[in-house]
Backbone:
């Protein structure tokens, strides 16, 4: 059964303190791995799609990487506005179902 | 550009009452449509998805149902709500053949 595990559950950083969020996944055949950002009381916002091991994507202070078993979301010199819950999700080659992890709540203090 | 609208944003309903949440997508045609539920501190749980008008696939057996009466309209319903139906409901769409989901703002349901 497809499974996504994110760690840590919560992460508190000082502004400018770089760190990484982890997403471990189990899937029969990976069609895509996705990262989303969710602000409190809002729907998730799509960030990245990664398709194969070794692939990397960047957007502002965020960089997502992918291996055969996990993905990392690296946050470089975060700012308070980066505070949010970051969700990881996988879609298998069956096509329609996207399985989400429970998320990592990131708090960045000025 | 594409937009997704979901309503109502918030509702409080008594146990045993009916439910109807609506979602519409604009700016695209023949989208795949999804209903997810998010419980506090937990991941998103897929409830229903649809690849076309009248085509509904259910992922979790429960007292909820979904319908797609028009290409860009997706409705989540219940005849009798349970306490366990409380949660944050999210509608999403994707382009056929792609995996990126685009979510609405969500509907927070509290069943008392």
Residues:
């Amino acid at each position: 059964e497809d499974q996504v595990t994110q760690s840590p559950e919560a992460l508190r950083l000082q502004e400018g303190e770089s760190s990484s969020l982890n997403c471990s996944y189990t899937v029969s055949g990976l069609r895509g791995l996705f990262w989303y950002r969710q602000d409190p009381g809002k729907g998730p916002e799509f960030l990245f799609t990664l398709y194969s091991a070794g692939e990397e994507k960047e957007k502002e202070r965020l960089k997502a990487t992918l291996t055969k078993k996990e993905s990392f979301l690296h946050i470089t010199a975060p700012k308070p506005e980066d505070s949010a819950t970051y969700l990881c999700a996988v879609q298998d080659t069956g096509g329609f179902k996207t399985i989400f992890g429970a998320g990592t709540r990131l708090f960045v203090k000025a | 550009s594409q937009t997704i609208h979901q309503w109502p944003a918030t509702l409080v309903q008594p146990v045993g009452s009916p439910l109807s949440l609506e979602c519409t997508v604009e700016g695209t045609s023949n989208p795949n449509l999804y209903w997810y539920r998010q419980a506090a501190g937990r991941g998103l749980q897929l409830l229903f998805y649809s690849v076309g008008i009248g085509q509904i696939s259910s992922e979790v057996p429960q007292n909820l149902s979904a319908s797609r009466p028009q290409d860009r309209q997706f409705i989540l319903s219940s005849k009798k709500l349970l306490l366990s139906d409380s949660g944050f409901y999210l509608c999403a769409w994707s382009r056929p053949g792609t995996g990126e989901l685009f979510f609405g703002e969500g509907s927070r349901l509290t069943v008392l």
The first strand of chain A starts at residue 3 and ends at 7.
